[in-house]
Q: What sequence folds into this?
């Protein structure tokens, strides 16, 4: 595999924008409605300052940590995302190989375009993200499939109860074997020959091999499975039922409230992910980082706390860990890397995040992830922080 390097995650984002057709780029990049929450997710990290020590640097900090019972090389997990192959033909398999080489897990969506067993062959620390498509019957199918495939962790997404089209998503994604659809999409793709060749290499037909089969036993397409995500959202009783069906580590994804975190801990989950679904389901929900300290105070030490949303730099991983997260999940950055260079692009993003985290910890004088805590952060007055955020939000909305 050729090596690909980026100067920043933002550079990968710019390359992705040039290489992807507008509909595909905005599918990856866009948030819900006015994108206030998407903006706040990133902004929140810029409002957490460090308190560096002098004469105490560690040139080679140990980034390894233990998450859900297994040691990983840095506190980072590839987040579950759907429709990945529309970004690049390497898809989830390329991401799985890159994450394996980096020594970190990959979480795959129910809408993963590859059979789960192929992903676990590429990375033995594969997590399966579960949507309750088809209710408990469909969930049982997916749980059995994930177990048979060798997935180590089950991640239940609980924050999608209704979906509406995003403002950026007026253009349809290419998703079926249809000449009519292909020709309709050509005006966006004709000047992106590299992307078009990648799509053709992977095949126009996009299936959902890990979703429950249709009534006739045939495999769903991604477009058929997508609308079913909200048909049967899980209840607390469903989460308790899933806990009984799955004997491995289980994570509930989509927690933004302390009372929900406490209730998840009570039903016996091993971890939670503080998440607003990448700001794609409810604009106006709080940034995930702003909710982390309160939730960590309530359930930290009882269960592993993960966080996703807005992570763009290695320094952001340090901030999250210092505030109580065991690890973070990244979605958009790895997809930008995938768009820019396939598997090599994902590997480049992971190296960039690792180097950024190591450099930040060295400056803070932290020799290991275990040393990260509130003492490495510089407290700022609440009135300064939130008034500044408010000003930025007002300028963003103009």
A:
């Amino acid at each position: 595999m050729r090596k690909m390097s980026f100067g920043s995650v933002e550079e990968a984002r710019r390359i992705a924008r040039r290489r992807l057709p507008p509909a595909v780029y905005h599918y990856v990049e866009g948030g819900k409605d006015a994108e206030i929450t998407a903006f706040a997710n990133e902004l929140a990290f810029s409002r957490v300052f460090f308190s560096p020590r002098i004469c105490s640097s560690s040139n080679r900090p140990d980034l390894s940590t233990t998450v859900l019972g297994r040691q990983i090389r840095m506190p980072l997990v590839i987040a579950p995302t759907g429709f990945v192959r529309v970004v690049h033909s390497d898809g989830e398999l390329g991401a799985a190989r890159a994450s394996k080489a980096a020594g970190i897990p990959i979480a795959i969506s129910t809408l993963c375009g590859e059979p789960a067993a192929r992903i676990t062959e590429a990375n033995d620390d594969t997590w399966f993200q579960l949507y309750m498509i088809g209710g408990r019957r469909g969930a049982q199918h997916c749980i059995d499939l994930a177990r048979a495939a060798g997935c180590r962790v089950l991640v239940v997404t609980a924050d999608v109860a209704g979906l509406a089209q995003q403002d950026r998503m007026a253009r349809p994604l290419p998703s079926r074997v249809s000449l009519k659809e292909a020709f309709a999409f050509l005006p966006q793709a004709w000047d992106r020959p590299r992307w078009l060749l990648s799509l053709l290499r992977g095949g126009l037909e996009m299936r959902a091999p890990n979703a429950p089969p249709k009534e006739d036993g045939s495999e769903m397409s991604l477009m058929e499975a997508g609308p079913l995500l909200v048909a049967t959202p899980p209840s607390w009783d469903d989460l308790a039922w899933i806990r009984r069906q799955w004997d491995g580590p289980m994570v509930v994804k989509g927690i933004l409230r302390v009372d929900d975190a406490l209730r998840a801990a009570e039903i016996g989950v091993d971890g939670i992910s503080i998440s607003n679904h990448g700001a794609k389901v409810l604009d106006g929900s709080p940034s995930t980082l702003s909710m982390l300290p309160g939730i960590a105070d309530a359930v930290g030490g009882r269960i592993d706390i993960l966080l996703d949303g807005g992570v763009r730099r290695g320094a952001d991983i340090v901030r999250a860990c210092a505030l109580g997260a065991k690890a973070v999940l990244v979605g958009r950055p790895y997809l930008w890397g995938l768009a820019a260079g396939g598997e090599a692009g994902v590997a480049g993003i992971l190296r960039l995040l690792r180097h950024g985290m190591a450099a930040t910890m060295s400056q803070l004088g932290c020799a290991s992830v275990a040393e990260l805590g509130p003492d490495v952060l510089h407290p700022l007055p609440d009135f300064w922080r939130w008034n500044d955020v408010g000003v930025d939000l007002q300028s963003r909305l103009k």
Q: What stands out?
A: The mean pLDDT is 88. Residues 32 and 281 are 6 Å apart (CA to CA). DSSP finds 15 helices and twelve strands in the chain. The two ends are 45 Å apart (CA to CA).
